[in-house]
Amino acid sequence: MTEYQPTAQFQAQLVPYGPAQKSGEFDNMDQVSSTKIIFVFIITFQTQVIFASLPLVINTWNFRSSTIKAWETVFTNKQSAVDAVVEGCSVCEREQCDTTVGYGGSPDENGETTLDAMIMDGATMNIGAVAALRNVKDAIAVARNVLQNTKHTMLVGYQPIMLDPCAVGSQATEFAIQMGYTNESLRTNYSQGIWQTWKDNSCQPNFWVNVQPNSSTTCGPYEPISNNDVNNFWTRKEHKFGSGHHDTIGMIVIDSNKNVAAGTSTNGARHKIPGRVGDSPIPGSGAYCDNTVGAASATGDGDVMMRFLPALLAVEFLRANMTPSNAGEAALRRIVPHYPDFVGAVIVANITGDYGAACHGMLEFPFSVYTELTGNRVERVKCFSVN
Ligand SMILES: *[C@@H]1O[C@H](CO)[C@@H](O)[C@H](O)[C@H]1NC(C)=O
Ligand SMILES: *[C@@H]1O[C@H](CO)[C@@H](O)[C@H](O)[C@H]1NC(C)=O
Ligand SMILES: *[C@@H]1O[C@H](CO)[C@@H](O)[C@H](O)[C@H]1NC(C)=O
Ligand SMILES: *[C@@H]1O[C@H](CO)[C@@H](O)[C@H](O)[C@H]1NC(C)=O
After folding, report:
1. 235 noted as active-site residue
2. Where do runs of H (alpha helix) occur along 99-156?
3. Where does the entry annotate site (Cleavage) (predicted)?
4. Ligand with smallest separation from the Cα of 356
């Protein structure tokens, strides 16, 4: 069950059978679980340890309660891989994993939380996605309704100016309500507090460039500066991402019949411009899968990553016989020459049940795995850097 791949520098910290962590505790995890886990061992060879078996559940970050729910869905209840991804990611939406998934996090410039989610079925190559979904908490479940109850791929629910959430124009919301979901505000005191602090801080940071008044010092409304004045002087102030600010749950499930599904759910970038859609609901960017090959899902700086479709790239590199970790790294390497400071990660699995991950711009990236052989555990990869 152990395969050695001398090319891949890898350090894994294996945490078998620890108690399910409440999301958001990654930074304290070792401390929290030290008394409870049976054993922890650290492997530091030039190897990658692979425990390939099906079914397989793998998801970004240490969102373990999602992993466990997906496992119960596909293994215990023998439901489909698609259902397992939806059930698993739905846990994160309800638990507001790190406040970057689900309601009450990442308020936009109007103080509203909107949700992006996608589910893809590798058996049928069918996809359902929602983008900028307002007033409905169950984003990935609504995405499954788009997959199962429409011939469309993505519904978008945003009307930038009017703040009535269900005014004509919030089409994805109307669809969701028709499908039986609850119409409710996604604001919480927490998200309103973040928004108020941002307003009080002259709307810093934000995502505007080449506008006046100066977006580095002043709130909007803005207007574009003339083309003659556009120069490299304007730099985007990046938001903190990475440890402690994980931004998406991405999940892959492969059932014992080798049916592959992949999906994502997120509330996007904090202080995003209203109407912004990130990489998570974009097929080939947030996730991609194909029953003949495997699957990938990405997390990170979505505005940059969606320009490269890293999940599609990783699946195509699998098709070209790369190992999962090498396929993930090759996908991210496409981005680096253009955006050397980008932060992101990708998880990859092939239909044998071999899996891996790659990351850039952080020290390491944790992801959660569940198979019969491994149980549920969090693994970490060291991120590559080009120097
Ligand atoms: C949804 O809730 C909002 C706010 O309470 C309300 O204005 C709107 O009419 C509701 N829409 C539907 C379709 O129920
Ligand atoms: C939210 O804030 C309001 C007003 O400050 C307060 O009355 C309410 O108890 C708070 N709710 C929670 C859940 O903290
Ligand atoms: C905008 O404000 C920042 C911060 O004060 C300053 O460094 C920059 O020079 C300003 N840009 C322009 C074009 O005035
Ligand atoms: C999955 O990846 C492993 C490790 O690279 C490889 O041994 C296996 O053949 C791959 N499976 C398929 C179906 O390509």
Report:
1. no
2. 139-149
3. 247-248
4. 4
Residue 283 is which amino acid?
P
Q: Could you tell me if the CB of 5 is within 6 A of ligand 4?
A: no
Average pLDDT over residues 183-202: 96
Q: Residue 355 falls within a domain, yes or no? A: yes
Question: Which CATH number does the domain housing residue 277 bear?
Answer: 3.60.20.30
43-47, 59-63, 111-115, 170-174: which range is least confident on average? 43-47
Ligand at shortest distance from the CA of 192: 2
Q: Measured between alpha carbons, how far is 256 from 251 in angstroms, rounded to an integer?
A: 17
- Residue 317 falls inside a structural domain: yes
Number of domains into which the chain is organized: 1
Q: Which residues line ligand 3 (CB under 6 A)?
A: 214, 216-217
Helices (H), 203-309: 302-305
Q: Which residue's alpha carbon is at the smallest distance from atom 2 of ligand 3?
A: 216
Q: Is the pLDDT of residue 183 over 80?
A: yes
Secondary structure class of 85 (helix, strand, coil): helix
Which residue blocks in the chain are alpha helix, DSSP H? 29-33, 64-71, 81-95, 139-149, 171-178, 189-200, 302-305, 310-319, 324-333
Is 277 strand, coil or helix?
A: coil
What range defines the domain where residue 294 resides? 56-186+239-382
User: Parallel, antiparallel, or unpaired: how do β-strands 126-133 and 115-121 relate?
Assistant: antiparallel
**Per-residue pLDDT at 158:** 61
Shortest-distance Cα residue to atom 9 of ligand 3: 233
pLDDT digits (tens, 9 = 90+) for 6-19: 333 333 333 333 33
State mean pLDDT over 21-49.
38
pLDDT band at 226 (very low <50, low <70, confident <90, very high): confident
Tokens of 169: 């124009």
In a domain, 30, yes or no: no
Which residue has its alpha carbon closest to ligand 1 atom 14? 183
**pLDDT surpasses 90 at 25:** no
Q: State which ligand 3 atom lies nearest to the alpha carbon of 217.
A: 2
